[in-house]
Amino acid sequence: MKKNKFDYLSAIVVLITGLITIPSSAQQSLVRILSPASGLVVRPGQMIAISVSADSSVEKVVLIGQHLGMARLASDAAGGIVALGQGEGHPQQFLLTIPTRIRPGTYHVAAVGRTSGGTVESNALSLDVERPDEPTRIWVEPSIVEFTRVGDEVPLRVLGVFADGSRVELTHSSKIIIAPSDPRVAAVSAAGMVTAIADGRTSILVRTPSADYSVPVRVEQAR
Known about the structure:
Layout: H1 10-18, H2 25-30, E1 31-35, E2 40-42, E3 47-54, E4 60-65, E5 69-70, E6 72-73, E7 92-97, E8 105-115, E9 118-121, E10 125-129, E11 137-141, E12 145-147, E13 153-155, E14 157-161, E15 167-169, E16 177-180, E17 186-188, E18 193-196, E19 200-207, E20 212-219
Parallel strand pairs: 2-10, 12-20
Antiparallel strand pairs: 1-3, 3-7, 4-5, 4-8, 6-7, 8-9, 8-10, 11-14, 13-18, 14-15, 16-19, 17-18, 19-20
Protein backbone atom coordinates (compact mmCIF):
# COMPACT_ATOMS: atom_id res chain seq x y z
CA MET A 1 0.00 0.00 0.00
CA LYS A 2 1.32 3.43 -0.92
CA LYS A 3 2.10 5.56 2.11
CA ASN A 4 0.15 8.82 2.37
CA LYS A 5 2.56 11.71 1.82
CA PHE A 6 1.01 13.56 4.79
CA ASP A 7 1.51 10.71 7.33
CA TYR A 8 4.82 12.00 8.57
CA LEU A 9 3.26 15.39 9.31
CA SER A 10 0.55 14.16 11.68
CA ALA A 11 2.60 14.46 14.86
CA ILE A 12 4.02 17.83 13.79
CA VAL A 13 0.56 19.27 13.13
CA VAL A 14 -0.67 18.23 16.58
CA LEU A 15 2.31 19.86 18.27
CA ILE A 16 2.50 23.09 16.33
CA THR A 17 -1.10 24.06 15.49
CA GLY A 18 -1.89 25.13 19.05
CA LEU A 19 1.55 26.37 20.06
CA ILE A 20 4.55 27.42 18.00
CA THR A 21 7.78 27.19 19.97
CA ILE A 22 11.02 29.14 19.62
CA PRO A 23 13.41 27.00 17.55
CA SER A 24 17.17 26.88 18.01
CA SER A 25 19.45 29.03 15.88
CA ALA A 26 20.73 25.85 14.21
CA GLN A 27 17.21 24.97 13.10
CA GLN A 28 16.57 28.51 11.86
CA SER A 29 19.70 28.31 9.70
CA LEU A 30 18.17 25.35 7.85
CA VAL A 31 14.68 26.74 7.32
CA ARG A 32 13.65 30.40 7.54
CA ILE A 33 10.66 32.56 6.76
CA LEU A 34 11.97 35.42 4.62
CA SER A 35 8.83 37.48 4.10
CA PRO A 36 6.57 39.17 5.00
CA ALA A 37 7.90 40.89 8.10
CA SER A 38 6.42 39.92 11.47
CA GLY A 39 3.56 42.09 12.66
CA LEU A 40 1.84 42.36 9.28
CA VAL A 41 -1.81 43.35 9.68
CA VAL A 42 -4.12 41.07 7.70
CA ARG A 43 -7.89 40.65 7.51
CA PRO A 44 -10.08 37.55 7.75
CA GLY A 45 -10.43 35.87 4.36
CA GLN A 46 -7.26 37.46 2.98
CA MET A 47 -4.69 35.35 1.14
CA ILE A 48 -1.06 36.22 1.83
CA ALA A 49 2.15 35.03 0.19
CA ILE A 50 4.88 33.76 2.52
CA SER A 51 8.41 33.12 1.25
CA VAL A 52 10.37 30.28 2.89
CA SER A 53 14.03 29.44 2.43
CA ALA A 54 15.10 25.87 3.20
CA ASP A 55 18.53 24.28 2.96
CA SER A 56 18.90 21.59 0.30
CA SER A 57 19.29 19.06 3.12
CA VAL A 58 15.66 19.66 4.11
CA GLU A 59 13.65 16.97 2.34
CA LYS A 60 10.14 18.26 2.95
CA VAL A 61 8.82 21.62 4.15
CA VAL A 62 5.31 22.61 5.21
CA LEU A 63 3.97 25.91 6.49
CA ILE A 64 1.61 25.70 9.46
CA GLY A 65 -0.27 28.54 11.11
CA GLN A 66 -1.41 28.58 14.73
CA HIS A 67 -5.21 28.24 14.42
CA LEU A 68 -4.79 29.24 10.77
CA GLY A 69 -4.32 25.82 9.16
CA MET A 70 -1.76 24.85 6.55
CA ALA A 71 -0.60 26.91 3.59
CA ARG A 72 -0.42 25.60 0.04
CA LEU A 73 2.42 25.89 -2.42
CA ALA A 74 1.99 28.78 -4.84
CA SER A 75 3.64 26.74 -7.59
CA ASP A 76 1.32 23.74 -7.17
CA ALA A 77 -1.96 24.20 -9.03
CA ALA A 78 -3.32 21.05 -7.39
CA GLY A 79 -3.05 22.64 -3.95
CA GLY A 80 -0.08 20.67 -2.60
CA ILE A 81 1.39 21.69 0.74
CA VAL A 82 4.81 19.98 0.77
CA ALA A 83 7.88 21.76 -0.62
CA LEU A 84 11.47 20.66 -1.22
CA GLY A 85 14.39 22.56 0.26
CA GLN A 86 16.30 24.20 -2.60
CA GLY A 87 18.80 26.39 -0.79
CA GLU A 88 19.00 30.05 0.22
CA GLY A 89 18.87 31.36 -3.34
CA HIS A 90 15.69 29.52 -4.29
CA PRO A 91 12.98 30.20 -1.70
CA GLN A 92 9.61 28.50 -1.93
CA GLN A 93 6.44 30.55 -1.84
CA PHE A 94 3.38 29.46 0.13
CA LEU A 95 -0.11 30.92 0.05
CA LEU A 96 -1.94 31.12 3.37
CA THR A 97 -5.63 32.04 3.52
CA ILE A 98 -6.75 33.61 6.80
CA PRO A 99 -9.98 31.93 7.98
CA THR A 100 -13.04 34.13 7.53
CA ARG A 101 -14.40 33.25 10.98
CA ILE A 102 -11.49 33.99 13.30
CA ARG A 103 -11.14 36.20 16.34
CA PRO A 104 -9.02 39.33 15.91
CA GLY A 105 -5.61 39.01 17.50
CA THR A 106 -2.02 37.93 16.92
CA TYR A 107 -1.34 34.50 15.44
CA HIS A 108 1.91 32.74 14.59
CA VAL A 109 3.10 30.84 11.54
CA ALA A 110 6.14 28.59 11.22
CA ALA A 111 7.75 26.48 8.52
CA VAL A 112 8.53 22.90 9.56
CA GLY A 113 10.89 20.64 7.68
CA ARG A 114 12.25 17.12 7.79
CA THR A 115 15.93 16.25 7.45
CA SER A 116 17.84 13.00 7.89
CA GLY A 117 18.56 14.16 11.44
CA GLY A 118 14.95 14.87 12.38
CA THR A 119 12.49 17.75 12.35
CA VAL A 120 13.57 21.40 12.03
CA GLU A 121 11.48 24.53 12.56
CA SER A 122 11.85 28.09 11.33
CA ASN A 123 11.55 31.40 13.11
CA ALA A 124 7.95 32.29 13.94
CA LEU A 125 6.09 34.84 11.83
CA SER A 126 3.45 36.83 13.74
CA LEU A 127 0.35 38.06 11.93
CA ASP A 128 -2.06 40.61 13.37
CA VAL A 129 -5.54 39.59 12.20
CA GLU A 130 -7.99 42.50 12.31
CA ARG A 131 -11.36 43.15 10.69
CA PRO A 132 -11.37 46.10 8.26
CA ASP A 133 -14.69 47.40 9.60
CA GLU A 134 -15.42 48.75 13.06
CA PRO A 135 -18.06 47.28 15.38
CA THR A 136 -21.36 49.09 15.77
CA ARG A 137 -21.42 48.28 19.48
CA ILE A 138 -18.83 47.21 22.05
CA TRP A 139 -19.24 46.01 25.63
CA VAL A 140 -17.20 44.28 28.33
CA GLU A 141 -18.07 41.13 30.29
CA PRO A 142 -18.31 40.98 33.22
CA SER A 143 -19.26 44.61 33.84
CA ILE A 144 -18.23 44.31 37.52
CA VAL A 145 -15.55 42.08 39.06
CA GLU A 146 -15.66 41.03 42.70
CA PHE A 147 -13.10 38.86 44.50
CA THR A 148 -13.29 37.21 47.94
CA ARG A 149 -9.73 35.84 47.91
CA VAL A 150 -6.37 37.21 46.85
CA GLY A 151 -4.98 35.21 43.95
CA ASP A 152 -8.35 34.47 42.38
CA GLU A 153 -8.71 35.16 38.66
CA VAL A 154 -11.55 36.21 36.38
CA PRO A 155 -11.33 36.45 32.56
CA LEU A 156 -12.39 39.78 31.09
CA ARG A 157 -13.88 39.69 27.59
CA VAL A 158 -14.34 42.55 25.15
CA LEU A 159 -17.16 41.83 22.70
CA GLY A 160 -18.46 43.63 19.66
CA VAL A 161 -21.31 43.43 17.18
CA PHE A 162 -20.70 44.37 13.55
CA ALA A 163 -22.98 45.71 10.85
CA ASP A 164 -23.35 42.23 9.34
CA GLY A 165 -24.84 41.03 12.62
CA SER A 166 -21.81 38.97 13.69
CA ARG A 167 -20.80 38.94 17.34
CA VAL A 168 -17.02 38.80 17.74
CA GLU A 169 -14.67 38.63 20.71
CA LEU A 170 -12.19 41.53 20.51
CA THR A 171 -10.20 40.89 23.69
CA HIS A 172 -6.98 40.02 21.84
CA SER A 173 -7.28 42.66 19.11
CA SER A 174 -4.35 45.06 18.85
CA LYS A 175 -6.95 47.85 18.75
CA ILE A 176 -7.94 47.08 22.35
CA ILE A 177 -5.89 48.25 25.35
CA ILE A 178 -6.65 46.75 28.78
CA ALA A 179 -4.90 48.05 31.90
CA PRO A 180 -5.52 48.25 35.67
CA SER A 181 -5.88 51.69 37.22
CA ASP A 182 -4.22 50.41 40.44
CA PRO A 183 -2.07 47.28 39.91
CA ARG A 184 -1.53 47.05 43.67
CA VAL A 185 -5.14 45.87 44.02
CA ALA A 186 -5.71 43.96 40.78
CA ALA A 187 -3.55 43.02 37.81
CA VAL A 188 -4.63 42.16 34.28
CA SER A 189 -2.76 40.12 31.68
CA ALA A 190 -2.54 40.79 27.95
CA ALA A 191 -5.07 37.99 27.54
CA GLY A 192 -7.57 39.84 29.75
CA MET A 193 -7.18 37.70 32.88
CA VAL A 194 -7.84 39.81 36.00
CA THR A 195 -6.04 38.69 39.19
CA ALA A 196 -6.78 39.86 42.74
CA ILE A 197 -3.60 41.21 44.36
CA ALA A 198 -4.73 42.81 47.64
CA ASP A 199 -7.83 44.06 49.45
CA GLY A 200 -9.20 47.26 48.01
CA ARG A 201 -11.11 48.81 45.16
CA THR A 202 -9.90 49.75 41.71
CA SER A 203 -10.98 49.44 38.10
CA ILE A 204 -9.82 47.92 34.84
CA LEU A 205 -9.61 50.41 32.00
CA VAL A 206 -10.57 49.13 28.55
CA ARG A 207 -9.75 51.46 25.67
CA THR A 208 -11.34 50.74 22.28
CA PRO A 209 -11.35 52.72 19.01
CA SER A 210 -14.86 54.01 19.71
CA ALA A 211 -14.98 54.49 23.50
CA ASP A 212 -13.27 53.82 26.82
CA TYR A 213 -14.79 51.58 29.48
CA SER A 214 -14.16 51.24 33.20
CA VAL A 215 -14.85 47.92 34.92
CA PRO A 216 -15.10 48.30 38.73
CA VAL A 217 -13.05 45.77 40.72
CA ARG A 218 -13.44 44.99 44.42
CA VAL A 219 -11.22 42.66 46.41
CA GLU A 220 -12.65 41.91 49.85
CA GLN A 221 -11.45 38.78 51.56
CA ALA A 222 -13.78 37.00 53.97
CA ARG A 223 -12.81 37.57 57.60
